Each structure stands twice: as structure tokens, then as C-alpha cells.
Amino acid sequence: MLRSKGQWSRPQPWLFTFLRGSNAEQVAGEILGGLSSEEIGPFGRITYYPMLTGAFRAPLVRLPDEGVVFPFSVIRIPASSDAATIERMVAQNRALYERIRNAGGVQYPVGAFPMSPDDWKDHFGPRWPRLRDAKQRDDPSNSLTPGYNVFRGQT
After folding, report:
1. Where in the chain is the domain with CATH 3.40.462.10?
2. By C-alpha distance, which of 16, 35, 17, 14 is closest to 78?
């Protein structure tokens, strides 16, 4: 649909997170209550559904430490490629991420907002040494995922 409407090539400042099952309804409700349709865009979407964490097998994807989590995504598709609009949406994503993180949620790390190396270290928490060691072993020239700044200045 996005391709047929000429929207696919426009910037897509998306936010992908996982909410704790125990407070997902409250957190999502507060966030959704503060979003306008202009902040999501004419083709944007919100995703929110329950997921059993025991069924998830990707070892380094962070999930809240509960039996049920809710993937919660704000899939923004702005009406134009206006740089100021995109910047505002990215800043809003960062603010929403902070709210979600403060409520015990985590991000699925493909969203559109800047993360510092310290943010990444905090994100991966106790799994950080495993990821760092794998990176040093398997990508010593730092050619994989340079744009995320995951390892810049981290040891």
C-alpha cells in the first residue's frame, strides 16, 4: 500500500518497543491519549498485542522480565518529507522511549531515534559483555552496523 501511494520512499520515523504485560494497558493508554493523528501520519499505524516471552528464542533481543509482554509500535508515516516534521517525530520517539523505559519497557532496536553507546550498554544490561565479546571476536574491523553507534567508545 505504501508503495502504491508513493509513501514508501519517504522517511519513516518508527518506534518499536515491548511493554511489560503488568502495566502495558496503562502505559499504552497514556501514550495513545497524547498522540494526534498528525503525529502518526495519514498512513501510520499503532501495533499492540500480547506475546508470550517463553516462545521468543532470539537470545540478544531484550524483553521485559515477565511472562507476557506487548509489542507496542508507533509506525509513523508522515505526509511529507519535511525535515522539521521528521526531526520532531524522531524527538517524540526518543521521549516516548524514555517513558516506556521508565515504566520497565524496552525497545526493539530498529526504531528511529538516536542512541548513544551508553544507551546501548544500558539497553543490553547483563547481556552486554556477551554482545561486546561477540562483536570483538566476529567483527574486529567494525564493519557491521556502523550507523547504530553501539560500540563506539565502549569496551
Report:
1. 1-114
2. 14
